[in-house]
Amino acid sequence: MWPVIRWTLWQRRWSIFWWCLGLLGFIFLTLIFYPSIKTQADQLQKTLGNLPSTAIQLFGGTDFFSPIGYLNSQIVYLMLPLLLSVLSIGLGNSLIGREEHEQTIEVLLARPLSRGRLLLAKGLAGIINVLAVTTVGTLATVLLAKAVGLAVPSGNIVAACFACFMLVLTFGGVAFLLSATGRGRAAGLGVAAIFGIGGYIIGSLSGTVHWLKTPGLIFPYHYYRSADILRGQFDWSSILFFAIFVAICGLLSWIAFRARDLA
Amino acid sequence: MDAAIDCRDLSKRYTRNAPYALKDLTLSVMPGEVYGFLGPNGAGKSTTIRTLLNFIQPTAGSATILGQDIVKNSVAIKRSIGYLSSDMSMYPKMTGHEFLTYLSELQPATKPAYRQELAKRLKTDLNKRLSDLSRGNRQKVAIIQAFMHQPSVLILDEPSSGLDPLMQEIFYDLLNESKQRGAAIFMSSHILSEVQKICDRVGIIRDGQLVVERNIAEMAKEAAHTFEITFADQPPLANLRKVPGVKVASHKGANVTVHLRGELTPLLAELAKHEVVKLDARQLDLEEMFMRYYNGQEAQ
Fold first, then answer.
1. Is the CB of residue A152 less than 8 Å from the CB of residue A145?
2. Residue stretches of chain A with pLDDT short of 50
């Protein structure tokens, strides 16, 4: 199993590097302008306050220019989960799906390696991949936040990024499950993306659109309270929800994959 | 001695209403035996191989490899299997060396130096990226991965495709060495001359069913008793039919084909009475048998 993890990561080493670099660039460009925005915070906040409440909810709340509000609306609530979701869904979709599509899976399964172990190894490689990129993003956010004078405790930023990491794993888990069932990779990608983005929209709007409250409960985004975490209110139950969700996806993937015909 | 590969009524159909891709396949391959599995595209050769390797699940029947069930003990079985297919999918960005190291880590070899020895014999550059290799050179890497751990069972799906004649000979040597070591070799092929040359037994599959299984040595014995005779004049068909053990298989003009079972002397004595222009003892012709079964004459 370890060779599969190691070689999968080794094969993706350049992809990981470019993702880290891209995320670093994005965070740098977002935070570097904070000092100039800070001076006009009150005015900007007033202008944005005129926006419809549904639009405001989509950006993660009502506070955009306080240190926590800025970090939350610009990075932790929207762009970081969005970018990491793309990575996570892509990985979930391709780790098994691409091997099967390109038939390299036969070379692996012709060795004494069970399907369950292959699945576990690929899943763990995917998690490590997302974790590596998240870690770089987290460190960049913590250091740059300090550098530009964003007064948010580092521990809270780390906790929020960790919650974001757990959130995006759920989307990756859905993509992984769909690819493990052997259904079309494109369909898997689409469903996982809809699950992620749809969940974001429903989860964000459920605060103002009341009839979305109940359906919003089934989407992981509902349990992602990044602004609260940045304020120091870390909720382990939501992390547990994400972890259980990912574990269920893993279990269902194994059930679907262990005895089916390979394409 | 127990069979290394043993299939009992092995069947596969991909969907409930689809016709069987493989139907009641019963065959066995003994240790030290090379079994040639023949059939055109879509006959069920790859389905058989993919079922044996547990890439797909059998619908009915069972099979064992080295005494272990192919479904329940698939992982344990694969410790002793080498698998090779034509134009095998590999990781294009890896070098041959990296690819083989990866696979060696999943299935450690008893003699790690053997991999290097194989690369040397097959004249393979393992430092090049797999995407930069020609099809033939990729096939050499695929051969190394199948043989490098010296498996007890080799399952080969059209293994020599893409190899030049020189490399084919080296490949046949490798097969022969594995056979001498006691490995059972199950090999599908389109190249009948190859099968004839290296296999001990052949099975022909048609529409998912094994239609005939023959021993190559027996076939050679039978084929040696087929004669093609060209007479100077009209052939003495009536006299030939009277010769004990002779059956006139076909005749056209002055040419006659006879099958002989038994002594050769009476036939030669009869031929001596006539002016014979040409006498050929036909060699083993697997292709003829293959075509005969594929035209359905024998199977009907």
1. yes
2. none
Which residues make beta-bridge pairs with B34? B185
**Chain A, window 89-148: residues with a beta carbon less than 8 angstroms from a chain B beta carbon:** 102-104, 106-114
Q: Which of A3, A106, A110 sits opposite B102 (nearest CB)?
A: A3
Please give the interface size between A and B, counted as residue pairs whose CB atoms are below 8 Å apart. 58
C-beta atoms surrounding A140 within 10 Å:
20
pTM of this structure: 0.82
Write down the ipTM of this complex: 0.81
pLDDT digits (tens, 9 = 90+) for A179-238: 998 877 777 788 888 888 888 788 777 767 777 777 777 788 888 888 889 888 888 888
Question: Residue A8: in which H helix or E strand, if any?
Answer: helix A2-11
Q: Using a CB-CB distance cutoff of 8 angstroms, which residues of chain A are in contact with residue B94? A: 11
Is residue B205 within 8 A of residue B37, CB to CB? The reply is yes
Q: How far apart are the first and last CA of chain B?
A: 34
User: Which residues does A78 contact at the CB level (< 8 Å), separation at least 6?
Assistant: A59, A60
The pair of structure tokens assigned to A28 is 């740098």
Report the distance separating Cα B21 and Cα B86, nearest Å.
20
Asked if A110 and B81 come within 8 Å (Cβ–Cβ), the reply is: yes
* pLDDT tens-digit series, residues B243-263: 988 889 889 999 999 988 778
**Which of A44, A70, A47 is closest to A59 using CA atoms?**
A70
Q: Is B255 on the interface with A (CB under 8 A)?
A: no
The DSSP code sequence of chain B is ---SEEEEEEEE-SSTTSPPSEEEEEEEE-TT-EEEEE--TTSSHHHHHHHHTTSS--SEEEEEETTEETTTTHHHHGGGEEEEETT----TTSBHHHHHHHHHHHS--SSTHHHHHHHHHTT--TTSBGGGS-HHHHHHHHHHHHHTT--SEEEEESTTTT--HHHHHHHHHHHHHHHHTT-EEEEEES-HHHHHHH-SEEEEEETTEEEEEEEHHHHHHHHTTEEEEEESSS--HHHHHHSTTEEEEEEETTEEEEEE-S-SHHHHHHHTTS-EEEEEEPPP-HHHHHHHHHTTTTT-
DSSP track, A15-30: HHHHHHHHHHHHHHHH
Query: Residue B224 pLDDT more than 70?
Result: no
User: At which residue do the structure tokens 């272990």 appear?
Assistant: B68
Enumerate the β-bridge partners of residue B250. B257
Residue B268 CA from chain centroid, whole number: 36
